[in-house]
Amino acid sequence: MGCSGVSPPNPTQALADLQSDPDAGLLAPPLPGSTQGSLTGLTNLSQLPSEGSVRYTGAVALEDQSRTLAIIGALSVMANFGGQHSVNGRAENFTGSDNKPFGGTLYLSNGIIDPSVGTEIGTGYPVTADLTGSLTDDVRSYAIDAQIGGHFIGGDYDGIAGFADGTVTSSRGQDTIAGVFNVER
Questions:
Q1: Beta bridge partner(s), residue 63
Q2: Domain contains 179
Q3: With a threshold of 0.90, does the pTM exceed it?
Q4: Which end of the chain, N or C, is surrounded by fewer C-beta atoms within 10 Å?
């Protein structure tokens, strides 16, 4: 059930909105320069290459449902178009409330590129992967177990943008976590 003619959500704007939301707890750490572009439109998936790989960089922002954790970090993604059509990468250099740094890394694994899902919003995501790992601040550790789903953006698979959701576990217990990501080449 797609929504033809509907523009995809703009994760770049969602990242900026999350940063400027006074209730989110983020005090606007700077977005990496690569996420300040204005890619629009979904890539025609028939235009994806059948071999080679592309490295994308940008940002991921995550927030838990209780709004006790709101973080943004640098995201690097490698899309491998040959063979298994895989995606992997890592997110690191996280900052949170009051620009407080977080140590640790989140890893993208078990990622796939599936051009058969279509390009209409609501038909699924052509890029999916697990986003897992641990982050620490000066008080506690956070175990993140999430998934991402995104679309190739731009006329020539110039970026990948989408959403994340899953759980975060800390000494406070377990909570749901959601977010957005945007990477460009």
A1: 70, 178
A2: yes
A3: no
A4: N
